[in-house]
Design brief:
single chain; 359 residues; alpha/beta; 8-stranded mixed sheet; binds adenosine-5'-triphosphate; binds magnesium ion
Length: 359
């Protein structure tokens, strides 16, 4: 008749248990993401947890709710008050459940900073970043290019740049090529030196890259992100004062949630999504210029529509793009009238439009 009286849990116990729940797609927990708005334990031991999620993916709130219920079931009766909201597409006002933007310092003289990212490696982020940057420069913008890929820096090779950056006023002078300013870890390290840096050191290095570089006056600084959308990349986009993110995908990856993960990463830190670029969209034969949809072209556009983000354009799979990349002469520079160069130009114009920069 008199069962064991259950001690009501403390708020700390509830919060500790909530730390075991990861935000879908990330290894970070929902407490550190700021999704848990309040935890209350009533006199009778009932627990009420208020959650607020900013997401475009309608499956996420239900998934988080299920996992929270599972993590707290040991504590008896649990009420979950869930509110969910779509992220903004333009303004930079931080919203509940998102990391506030003001913590990210801008770079004096740099009007906008744009990151090029992807949920996975090898989709052509660096190729897109380099050619977009060159195309924006050809449109008449003052452009900087920052290689944030510490482990596999490829921008200097693609840009045909080498040499050690000099230092002026205790800041690194970017290397210049084709009218663009550029900084990369590859310029600072001997190519045979192993990169053994981890987490916090990488963040420090990236901060140095953005803040301790004499970028001068720039319309846009394009940042080539390391592959993936995990915690390291998330911290990186938090470190840099980004104005927008471009997601690169190939048509078949789109079906595999890769673009969605990229979008989620930027949304978490309240960075505007400028849109999706579909790379290796279709094959253009260099001889007859015949098109072939190798990977099933159009997935990027469909995904952009589904996620309600802009579609910035399609870049064909074109042998010349790779050859130019290997030669250190971006295709936009080497053959500005070619099919791929024109495609990069259309994307560059779309990005500038999203940034509200006049052409
Ligand atoms: N549209 C394209 N047509 C032909 N080759 C391409 C195209 N896009 C990229 N490539 C080639 O694919 C390879 C991978 O591209 P890239 O290095 O830009 O990808 P990435 O996403 O930056 O890779 P990582 O994840 O390693 O940083 C390179 O050899 C590049 O030249
Ligand atoms: Mg790359």
């Amino acid at each position: 008749m008199f069962g064991k009286v259950r001690q009501p849990p403390t708020e700390e116990q509830i919060r500790e248990a909530l730390k075991q729940v990861k935000f879908p797609g990330f290894s970070r927990d929902i407490i550190s993401f700021g999704i848990v708005k309040s935890v209350a334990v009533a006199g009778n031991g009932d627990v009420t947890v208020a959650l607020h999620i900013v997401t475009r993916d309608t499956n996420i709130p239900a998934q988080v709710e299920r996992e929270v219920t599972g993590a707290l079931k040991q504590f008896g009766k649990i009420n979950i008050e869930m509110t969910a909201q779509q992220p903004p597409q333009s303004g930079q006002m931080p919203m509940a459940g998102q990391t506030a933007a003001p913590a990210r310092p801008g770079i004096p003289g740099v009007k906008s900073i744009v990151a090029v990212a992807s949920g996975k490696g090898g989709v052509g982020k660096s190729t897109v970043a380099v050619n977009l940057a060159c195309a924006m420069n050809q449109i008449g913008k003052r452009i900087g290019l920052m290689d944030a890929d510490i482990y596999g820096p490829s921008v200097p090779k693609m840009m045909g740049a080498s040499g050690q950056p000099t230092i002026t006023d205790e800041k690194l002078d970017p290397v210049e090529n084709f009218g663009l300013k550029m900084m990369s870890m590859a310029l600072l390290l001997d190519s045979s030196a192993p990169v053994i840096w981890r987490g916090p050191m990488i963040m420090k290095a990236i901060q140095q890259f953005t803040l301790a570089v004499n970028w001068g006056e720039l319309d846009t600084l394009v940042v080539d992100m390391p592959p993936g959308t995990g915690d390291a990349q998330l911290s990186l986009v938090q470190t840099i004062a980004l104005d927008g993110g471009v997601i690169v995908t190939t048509p078949q990856d789109v079906a595999l949630e890769v673009a969605r993960r990229g979008i989620a990463m930027f949304e978490k830190v309240n960075v505007k999504i400028l849109g999706i670029v579909e790379n290796m969209s279709y094959y253009v034969c260099p001889h007859c210029h015949e098109h072939d949809d190798v990977f099933g072209h159009g997935g990027g556009k469909r995904e952009a529509e589904r996620m309600e983000v802009p579609f910035l354009g399609e870049i064909p799979l074109f042998t010349e793009i790779r050859i130019c990349g290997d030669k250190g002469l971006p295709v936009v520079i080497a053959a500005p009238d070619s099919v791929p160069a024109q495609a990069f130009h259309r994307c560059a114009e779309a990005v500038l439009k999203q940034l509200n920069q006049t052409l």
